[in-house]
Amino acid sequence: MRYSGFRVFREGLRRNSGWQPLWRDPEPKPAYDIVIIGGGGHGLATAYYLASEHGLTNIAVLEKGYLGGGNVGRNTTIVRANYLLPGNSEFYSHSLKLWEGLEGALNFNVMHSQRGVLNLFHSDGQRDAAVRRGNAMINQGDDAILLDREGVREKVPFLDFDNHRFPVYGGLFHPRGGTARHDAVAWGFARGADMRGVDLIQNCEVTGIDIEGGLVRGVQTTRGAIRAGKVGIVVAGRSSQVAAMAGLRLPIESHVLQAFVTEGLKPCLDHVVTFGMGHFYISQSDKGGLVFGGDLDFYASYAARGNLPMAEHVMEAGMSLMPMIGQARVLRSWGGIMDMSPDGSPIIDRTPVEGLYLNCGWCYGGFKAVPGSGFAFAHLLAQDRPHETAARYRLDRFRTGSGLMDEEGTGSQHNLH
Ligand SMILES: Cc1cc2nc3c(=O)[nH]c(=O)nc-3n(C[C@H](O)[C@H](O)[C@H](O)COP(=O)(O)OP(=O)(O)OC[C@H]3O[C@@H](n4cnc5c(N)ncnc54)[C@H](O)[C@@H]3O)c2cc1C
Question: What residues does the Rhodanese domain cover (predicted)?
Answer without folding.
Answer: 34-78
